[in-house]
Write a structure and sequence with these properties.
Rossmann fold; six-stranded parallel sheet; 6 strands; binds the ligand CSCCC(=O)C(=O)COP(=O)(O)O; binds magnesium ion; methionine biosynthesis; metal-binding
Length: 236
């Protein structure tokens, strides 16, 4: 096994609870959608999302109906993910939302960054949304620990080509990058591209082990399996 020089992490189900995303973030955006579009629909970034939603909508469906349908389906469609990030921004800034992180995550991220391991994110949430969840997390502002942020504009998380593109973007051999996710199909795609993989099987999220990848219950478990440093308090 090649030494790990970089970690690429998923968010929902990996660094943060599925319940936080589904019961806090998604409803926040759902409830604010129409008001946000009324207030900000003329702004170029918002108008571009609406235009793209109209382009991708089913025949006879308008842009807002398509956005509502994708929300109900939890579809990872770029204009929806971009809009959600823009809507959450206000909630993070005024303190109505605080980014959930499992308590084991921040100490490991800090220890790995201190040791020179490159830290990167790959989530279906937009890059802006990724920076918000880590920048306004329960463990403080962790956004600066990460150097690479990748979202659906790089490609789908279940496609090997997306991971190949990320490795090229990071100028690293795929086998030196460890991808962390709770979703077996994402790990399959990363493994096909040559990444090392580890499934986060978080009991509180009800994740089921795939049996196809190495697995860990938390980030210290990842560290132990892949020779990454442990935070001092858990090193013993
Ligand atoms: C950036 S936090 C919100 C995550 C999100 O919108 C989502 O759809 C979950 O995606 P992930 O790829 O992190 O499972
Ligand atoms: Mg996930």
């Amino acid at each position: 096994m090649a030494p790990v020089s970089a970690v690429l992490t998923d968010i929902e189900g990996t660094t943060s609870s599925i319940a936080f995303v589904k019961e806090t973030l998604f409803p926040f955006a759902r409830e604010a959608l129409e008001g946000f579009l009324a207030d900000h629909g003329q702004e170029p970034e918002v108008a571009a999302c609406l235009a793209e939603a109209r382009r991708l909508a089913e025949p006879g469906e308008d842009g807002v109906s398509a956005l509502r349908r994708w929300m109900a389906e939890d579809a990872k469609v770029t204009p929806l993910k971009t809009l959600q990030g823009l809507i959450w921004r206000q909630g993070y800034l005024d303190g109505r939302i605080e980014g959930h992180l499992w308590p084991d995550v921040a100490p490991c991220l800090r220890a790995w960054a201190r040791a020179g391991i490159g830290l990167h994110v790959y989530s279906s949430g937009s890059v802006a949304a990724q920076k918000l969840i880590f920048g306004h997390s329960a463990a403080g502002d962790l956004a600066s620990l990460f150097t690479g942020f990748f979202d659906t504009t790089t490609g789908g998380k279940r496609e090997a080509a997306s991971y190949a593109a990320i490795a090229r973007g990071l100028h690293l051999p795929p086998e030196s990058i460890l991808f962390l996710s709770d979703v077996a199909e994402e790990l399959d795609a990363a493994a096909t591209a040559g990444f090392q993989t580890c499934q986060l099987v978080r009991e509180a999220d009800g994740t089921l082990p795939s049996g196809r990848h190495r697995q860990a219950a938390d980030f210290p478990g990842v560290a132990r399996q892949f020779g990454l440093p442990l935070p001092r308090a858990t090193a013993a």
